[in-house]
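Consider one such protein record:
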Amino acid sequence: MARTLRQFFFVLILSGIGLPLLGDTLILKNETVLVGKVKGKYEDRIIFKNSYGAFNVSRDQIKKLYETKSYKEDITIRKKLGLNFNALDIRKNYSEGDKSLTPSEVKKLKAGTETRKTEKETTRRNRIQIEPVFTKTMGELGSSIPYGYGALLSYSRDFESLPFFNIYLRGGYIYHNNAPYKLGIATTLGGPGFSAPVKGSLNHWITGSVTAGASYMNISNETDKADTISFTTFSHLGYEYRMNRTGFFINICHLYVYDKDVFFHSAGLSAGLIIKF
């Protein structure tokens, strides 16, 4: 009997995720002294924000970085180093740096319009995700094949003109085995996604996607076997920690495979490694 398609939405509450914000006194090799906050760390640079805005600082320009938790600590550092200072300016830079990156600042940093942004990092908009997945079968098939496991290989790309929009391509295999039943699902999917920084950070991101495509299903028991090609959707909502070249992620996900007689869907978790290029 045909079933009406129902969609399941999962809400991931990510409050307080990520490293604590760092207050900093930053001394450059040219003896420039800056007060503000580090908003992101990469292999070749850091993202730094103060009252002058958000900008990239190459690591080969940094002489010393002092991490502090209040502007008073920054004043103490200046005194110890014998540097002139204005307490009001230090407090202002610390306060402005403590604020989240604005959408325009994120776009500017990602697009590479900031003069300190390296061209190599600007073009690193592509990501490959190696995605082991574990699922719990829902509905009437839950008792016959309760669990599935497998792996997906995902590709996603950001777009300079649409900083929070990306596209996903996925392919993989999920296997269910609960004697005497066996079910294998080989799938290929594609569709839109989004990524948004957590508290303005360029390291911590909330991501999501809704991809659709086709699956080859093979199901069997001790006496019978059948296979078919069916319409499939795979959706996710999750968290990513991104560095310059790599990162990691954890997602909650939902898999739906259309069948005119049986409504098959499952929910689960995936986690793995990100490779950026």
